[in-house]
Amino acid sequence: MKTVYVLNGPNLNLLGMREPAIYGSATLDDVRQLCEQACQRHGLTLEFRQSNHEGELVDWIHEAGRIHAQGGLAAVVMNAAAYTHTSVALLDAVKGTGVPLVELHISNVHARESFRHHSYLAAAARAVMCGFGVAGYGLAIDAVAAW
Questions:
Q1: Catalytic option among 5, 83, 105, 137
Q2: Catalytic one of 5, 23, 83, 120
C-alpha cells in the first residue's frame, strides 16, 4: 500500500477561523477527514501533517523521499501556504528527493495579491491546483491515485 503525504504549511492550523471569506469554514481536522476518505477510496495510506516551521516541512519532504526511494510513496500533496512564494529550501528538498509533488492552494492565488502569483514549488511540481477550496485536497488525492 502506497502512502500519500499531505503537508500543510504556516497558518493552516487556523483554518475555520482565518479569513473565512477566502478559506471557508472547514477546519484542518475537516481537511484531514476528507483526505482520509479519499485515501481509503483508493487503498492509500495517509500521512497528514501541519507545521508553521519551514525546516520541519523540509524534514518531512526528506522523510517522504526515503519512502519514495523504497517505492512506497504515491505522492506529496503540499499546501506550503506562504512558503510557496518564499522558500527555495522547500524547492530544493523536492528536487533533491525527487518526490512526485502536487502543489495545492485552497484559494485561487492568481486572483489575489501579486506576490502570491509566483511559486518556487511549481518548478518541481507534477501538478498545481488552486481555487477549489478544501475540496482540492480530495481532488489531488484522486489525481494521484490515477497516476
A1: 105
A2: 23
What is the arrangement of strands in the sheet containing 45-50, beginning at the earlier edge strand? 45-50, 3-8, 73-79, 101-105, 127-130
How many C-beta neighbours within 10 Å does residue 132 have? Answer: 16
Does the annotation count 62 as an active-site position?
no
**Report field, pTM of the whole predicted structure over 0.90:** yes
Residue type, 15: L
Say if strands 3-8 and 73-79 run parallel, antiparallel, or are unpaired: parallel
What are the mean pLDDT values of the chain's consecutive 10-residue runs (147 residues total)?
97 86 84 98 98 98 98 98 91 98 86 66 95 95 96
Whether 120 is a known active-site residue: answer no
Give 8: exposed, middle or buried? Use CB within 10 Å, 0-12, 13-18, 19+. Answer: buried
